[in-house]
Amino acid sequence: IRHAKVLRYQGYVQRYLPRPFAAVGGSLINAASQAWDRLRGMFEKSRPHAEWVDRVDPRMAQLWERSPKGDGWVTVRDNVMLQWRFDELPSLRPRYLLLSAAAGEELLAWFVCDTHVSDPHMLTVNDFWSTQGVLGIDPLAVRALCRAAYREGFHAIELHFTGADAIHASWASEGFVERSRQPMFVRWYNPDVAGELRGNLHITDIEFES
């Protein structure tokens, strides 16, 4: 399922209104959106520390190790896998958003992101993980991602994901809407372990892009 959220509305509103009206309307929607975010922030008990880094951080694998992985099929997200999949892949220029209670502490969540291949104003989330593992993700972590992307100047965020309903609900609660769906095809290279994809899945672009 492809989810997307608009962060800046001028360009989006231009699809539906003439340019002069879109500029004014988009600015008003942006102002209202930011005001609502500041209001919600007043009631947050704690806001995670957000940090962008350019290489895989060992704490990402540490979070993977101590979080629920369920009994279904899920990709191992250790240092070796993450470095091979993202740091060493020449077709991606990844950036990692790390969330923690304070700078340098163990992670609460992480997101592997990249600029969209055809839209430099859109941030693509290639993979993510949190303390809840395959069971869920705190909406505050998604909110922190949106704030960080906004500060970086992005106009929108997209995500391709299949997994627990609770995780979809967390993204939806922060304004992400379903844009499209596509079937997922699986080929087992080892027939001895082939089987149905049961249990809690966590399928992102880490399984598909090459």
Summarize the entry for a quick read:
The chain has helices at 10-13, 19-42, 58-66, 79-87, 139-151, 165-173, and strands spanning 2-6, 49-53, 95-100, 107-115, 122-130, 156-160, 162-163, 177-180, 202-203. The chain is of the alpha+beta class. The radius of gyration is 18 Å and the shape is globular.
Descriptive account of the structure:
There is one protein chain. Helix content is 32%, strand content 22%. It has six helices and nine strands. It has helices at residues 10-13, 19-42, 58-66, 79-87, 139-151, 165-173; strands at 2-6, 49-53, 95-100, 107-115, 122-130, 156-160, 162-163, 177-180, 202-203. The strands form two sheets. The chain has a seven-stranded mixed sheet with strand order 2-3-4-5-6-1-8, sandwiched between helices. Strands 7-9 form a two-stranded antiparallel ribbon. The longest helix is centred in the first third of the chain and has 24 residues, at 19-42. The two termini are 19 Å apart.
